[in-house]
Structure prediction request, 470 residues.
Amino acid sequence: MISIDKTESNRWLQLWIVSSAAFLSVIDIFIVNVALPSIQGGLHSTDGDLQLVIAAYLTGYAAFLITGGRLGDYLGKKRVFVAGMLLFTLLSCCCGLAQTAGQLNAFRFLQGVSAALMVPQSIAYIHLLFPLHEARIKALGVYGSIAGTASVIGQLLGGIIPDMHFLMDGWRWIFLINLPVGLIAAWLAVKYLHETPRVGESRFDRSGVVLLTVMLVCLIYPLIRGRELGWPVWAVAMLVGSLVLLVVFILDQRRKGLLQQAPLIDLQLFGFRDFNVGLGAVLFYFMVQDSYFLINAVLLQNGLGFSSSLTGLLFAAQGIGYVVAAVSSIRLVKAYGRKVLIAGVLLMAVCLYGHIRLFRGDVHVSAGTCLLLFLYGMGCGSVLPSLLTLSMRSIPPAFAGAASGPYTTFQQTAVALGVGVSGGIFFGLLKGPSQAAGYEHAYAVATWVNIGFLLVTAGLLYLLPEKAEG
Prediction:
């Protein structure tokens, strides 16, 4: 078996190759956010279909993330990385060629599953390529910077591309542009990445994956579909069923843990107070994360008449603020601890109030508008890079690896829930498809809900340890 090549030139080349997974998985979230109204118009879809474009992807990603990491151990990280990259590319093309909203959302779910195959391998490769702490921190910084840059590029392209019609509806190209990037990344991975030794004793919790996937679908799908259909019996039954499946899942994981059968989630993690508080902060924070983009994209384009391109440019200002704050926040957190995260969350809440006051029927884009979005992005950038570190500070090192998978799974699930809850409130309150007053009222209520989520997040962050580990 070929060992990992750690020579200076090759390992940095391999870092850029594996970082393509972060680039594609992140850009595919943000590029869709801005393009949602164009997708809705192109496929004549419902508001629920619109929410599922985001939620389906995140559900597939969350349900298979831990299993994707273990597949890399069992089959070899290079093999799984390349397979995930090719599947992601293929499913991106399927999304771009979808003829109905149902087809698009089915492909989006599978696209999330393929992202769950490639992303864990990229992170694992970084730890293998950079065994020394200082070099690893630098490499993770590069990886994070690429993900941050992808969010800005995604928001910009998600606005511009739908306004460019060539051979087909412009929104389809937001998925099809993944084709050259994905193929090049897969070819470079085959050529330059070295395969890792296979861990033959690695086990798969198949029943755990099935229970988790069905539970998430039973929770998120009726939250989105039930509202627009008037809460039929099947939607209520699915929500109740999701709670039953959660109990079954917990009992199943506990039994496997006692029998040392490699459960999907190690329930011993929930014996650590900081981890539980951190998960609570993650829940309320990430319920705001993508619901913000959803309701703002729909308000600005459908409610206030902004073009897709102008909306993308405005969101890019938010993304730039995120990158600027993220670069400096890690250093500030070392000095001031949780205060930085609390300040960031409160800044986001204040900016959301500014959104309510500003985004009305007579709004005009100005430097003040861009500044408001930039400051909101700075709030996000002050929180995200260090939230995981603070949440896991008191967890013994032996549990650190086991904690990162459930943390990320919970994070993606929270984003999907936010799209269902805040997005559902927004769409449920709309008075009509073209009445600005209806949009403004729905937007204000949904945004106040998000402000409430952020205030709860700030309270939970206050309960976390004072400083993150350096």
Q: What stands out?
A: The chain has three domains: 1-196, 206-263, 271-470. The longest helix spans residues 8-43. The chain has a mean pLDDT of 85.
